[in-house]
Each structure stands twice: as C-alpha cells, then as structure tokens.
Automatic annotation (TrEMBL):
It comes from Rhodococcus triatomae. Keywords: Kinase, Transferase. Gene3D superfamilies: 3.30.420.40. This is Sugar kinase of the NBD/HSP70 family, may contain an N-terminal HTH domain. InterPro entries: ATPase_NBD, ROK. Belongs to the ROK (NagC/XylR) family. Pfam families: ROK. It comes from the Bacteria. One of its GO terms (molecular function) is kinase activity.
C-alpha cells in the first residue's frame, strides 16, 4: 500500500501518543507500569484496542515501541515498563495489528531507534562518524548509528544497547544496589536511574517523604540539601558510567544525546550533575573529558530537541536501516 496518510505512534510505559492529520493525542499507556498485576495477554489486547480504535481507516501507521525487539522480524522480546517480566514468547505486534486492521499498513521500530533517527536528523554534523542516543524515561536503552553508512548495527536477535538491564555501577549502599527492576532483575541501571526508580532510591537512602520529592528535588539540590544531593548523585551515576564506558569502547562515537521524559523534565539539573561526574578525572584515561569540551560531544536534551514521532516516520521512510551483524 502506498500513498496512504501517515499516522505516527509512540508507545511507552507511561503514555501512548498518536499523531495524525488532526493533531496529537496522548492517553495513558495500557502498560504493566500503570496496571501492575494485569496479565500480559490482557495488556496486549488493551493495546490493540487502543490503537485500532484511534487509527483512521486506510492509514500508514509507523509505531515506535518502548520494547526490546527484532525490528527485521517484527518480534518483541520484552519490556519491563510495558509488560513486566511475564513475556514467555515473542509478541508479533505487527501481525496482530494487521490481522485486526488489514486496511492499514503497519510499521514497527524500537522507540530508541526512532528517537535516534530524529536526533541524527537534527543534531549530527558533517564529520561525525557515529552518533549515539540514550533515553532515560520509564525505561533506559541506547542506540548507536553509523552516520557514514546510515545504519544501526544489531546482533542476530535484532538487539543493540539494552543497557537498562545491565548491572548498575553505583556507589550506593546495599539497599540501593539490590533495588528491583520491572524486568524481574535487581540492581539494574533501570532500577536506579530510570524515572520511576527515583522514589525507590529515596526510600532506600531514607531521604524522607517522597510525595513531593519530584517537585522539590531541584530546589533542594540547588539549595545545598545534603540528602537531596546524595540522592541525585546516585540516580545520575549509572548513566555517567555508561557514557564513560561507551566512549572507552568506541572512540568513533562523536556525539551522545541523552533524552527521555525523566531527563527533559529537569534538563539543567541533569546536565550539571552528568557533566560533573563525567568530567571527574580518575586516571590518565580521562583526558579530554573536561566540562569545557563535553558540550561538543554530549548533548542533554531539552523538551522538543528530539521527537520519536518524527523519528518513527523517518525510519518508515528509510532514513536509517537496521542491519544485523
């Protein structure tokens, strides 16, 4: 099917956004994050209902989904925020949507792939070899593109950069190191550094009441509150360590973007702490990571800097190609 009107969809653990000719609507995502304890099969059915009821007949639908997947085979392996730890076999979402709505053409990519495509389009510069985008939202993941070949290399299962489920590098106490992850593991990067983890880290540290923590956090950190500063240091620390690791393993990565709802809700605070940690000299290997030069290599996104809805359409148009190694 060609020449169809395009509908862009961004599905995360918190929100489902749909953009069509009449504008963009945002509704709560039918996810495990919002509906803990609901079986995976029921959550998938709710998702199908939500999409099919909102997509006009005869559309080209480009879906960005916050899940680990094989984008070539259109198989979803899992997503802690969307479906918890309960996926026993891959979900073939495109097949399910096509069966229910054969009038439309369905495309599916990982949400970080979509965000990376838009980040490259907006922020890559001549001479950049590889560009990386890391999202810190209800979950955490990373994608890298070789902008010289317009490809995103992945492994045989279609995966790249599922860093949210690595063990976190943290200087926090045992209570922080053992915090649960929505995927069922413990002590993962997402257990400490993802948006929903903030309250859990605060409780593990005994920081105090968490009801107004998100609203008060920046003022408390800027005001010199020791407990808030310790909390914020630990929340950002796993991401700072990931940035150091990425550059250590691949020096051809010329630009890293960091975005997602958790970052973009407090961009300046996040940038200040991230730059401080990444620029800290711990050995001879840290040359060139000073704050003055980080601005050219590390971009902390503000709202509007990256839009997965634009990115998923760009992917459907072939802006970048996912290539298995």
């Amino acid at each position: 099917m060609t020449g169809l009107p395009t509908v862009a969809v961004d599905l995360g653990g918190t929100w489902l956004r749909i953009r069509g000719a009449d504008g963009t609507c945002r509704v709560p995502a039918p996810s495990a994050l919002r509906h803990p304890g609901v079986p995976v099969e029921e959550l998938v059915e709710r998702l199908l209902d939500a999409l099919c009821s909102r997509v006009p007949t005869g559309s080209r639908v480009a879906v960005s989904c916050g899940a680990a997947m094989d984008e070539e085979r259109k198989e979803i392996h899992g997503s802690g925020p969307l479906w918890g730890s309960g996926i026993e076999r891959p979900i073939r979402l495109v097949d399910l949507l096509s069966e229910r709505r054969p009038d439309s053409e369905w495309h599916l990519v990982n949400d970080v792939t979509a965000a990376l495509a838009d980040f490259v389009r907006r922020h890559a510069r001549p001479g950049h070899r590889k560009v990386c985008y890391l999202t810190v939202s209800s979950g955490i993941a990373l994608r890298t593109a070789d902008v010289r070949t317009h490809t995103i290399p992945v492994d045989g299962a279609g995966l790249q950069g599922e860093v949210g489920h690595l063990r976190a590098v943290t200087s926090g106490p045992a209570a922080v190191q053992s915090l649960p992850c929505p995927c069922g593991g413990r002590g993962h990067v997402s257990s400490i550094a993802a948006g929903p983890a903030l309250d859990g880290v605060a409780r593990a540290l005994g920081t105090g009441r968490t009801e107004t923590l998100r609203e008060e956090l920046e003022a408390r950190v800027r005001g010199g509150d020791d407990a808030a500063i310790r909390l914020w240091t630990l929340v950002v620390e796993p991401i700072a360590e990931l940035v150091r690791t990425v550059w250590s393993l691949d020096p051809q990565i010329d630009l890293i973007g960091i975005g997602g709802g958790f970052v973009e809700a407090r961009t300046a605070l996040y940038r200040d702490e991230l730059f401080r940690q990444v620029a800290t000299v711990r050995s001879y290997a840290d040359r060139g990571l000073d704050v003055e030069h980080l601005g050219d290599r590390l971009h902390v996104c503000e709202p509007g800097d990256v839009d997965p809805l634009d990115g998923v359409v760009a992917m459907a148009d072939g802006a970048l190609t996912v290539s298995k190694i």
